[in-house]
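Shipment paperwork, digital attachment
Item: protein structure file
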Amino acid sequence: MTRSPIDPDLIDRLAEVAVRTGVNLQPGQELVLTAPVSALPLVRAVSRAAYRAGASLVTPLIADPEVALARYRHAPDNSFEVAPDWLYSGMAEAFGRGAARMAIVGEDPMLLAEADPSKVSRAGKANSRAYKPAMEKITNFDINWSICAWPGEAWAARMFPDLPLEEAQAKLAEAIFAASRVSGADPVAAWADHNATLRTRTDWLNGQRFAALHFRSPGTDLTVGLADDHEWHGGASTAQNGVTCNPNIPTEEVFTTPHAQRVEGTVRSTKPLSHQGSLIDGIEVRFEAGRIVEAKAAKGEDVLRELLATDDGAARLGEVALVPHSSPISQSGLLFYNTLFDENAACHIALGQCYSKCFRDGADLSPDQIAQQGGNSSMIHVDWMIGGAETDIDGLTADGTRVPVFRQGEWA
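Attachment content:
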């Protein structure tokens, strides 16, 4: 067996953080775990950590890239209208009965780059429709859930194509472990300190009660109205089941829900978006009354247009997030081709579904009430980056007063 270039002690540390700080798994709770086959070392370490934490059952669902590619190379055309709704219904049932959710990412971000874009889009839509019952448990924050990352070989090769594969994987592992705060002496304490810092930011923003945010940078002049009775979150959050968890490992953002009808202006992406195996770069869009009415991209424009046509809510915003340019992920200088990391390097917005937890008393609101307060509904939730070193942001109060929030990419 080939020796892995990844320190097994750091794998165990990441697993402990993912279980105890990420999902914060409770004694007797089930864990539903998804991962690519390349991540089996971390899957095994997470399973050990979960059972030590008192898990009643760990159920791993493993995806294989060769199986995914076989579909696009050999499947009949009608295959791309099909999704495993039976599987997602079972996941939704498990979440409804109290299971926690963990996703480990690490697959090749450009796996489907050579596949027929129309087939990728059709399969994505079918999957989004089928996954919606389970996805709603997550976007409504009914359960404790979290995402973390594994340095897959194919992903590492994409990021560091000039390095030998073992060196590339070791370099990606180092970046993941550093961003996930597991390289230091006490990762759990490091996360507690980081969560406290993010809480200070959310407390300030919630105290301001801004009606909108105004973003200015090269190519961007965007006013994002905020949903009525919105609430800012960041770092650790408490799910409706009472468990406090960190949904993203790593995370640098504070975020809330925009008003789906009150976004105006133009915005330009500052980093490429890797979506379903395609790279979308140089995105430029214009909003009117909350909806994207013009859209173009220097690369992947056809994929962007397919994404925006997913459903009625796909061309509106479901999230706005603030991340300083000095964040560790930004300062690494790396483009990860993975939204979990790249969104934590820059301020970003998300097309599609909003998070109901980003409302005051969101757990008690019906879907109709959320919509009335400006929350967007969609089968998708896709983040893309709009911030950088030249980003200025003002908070706009109800009476029009401007309050500096960011200057030159940093908290004002």
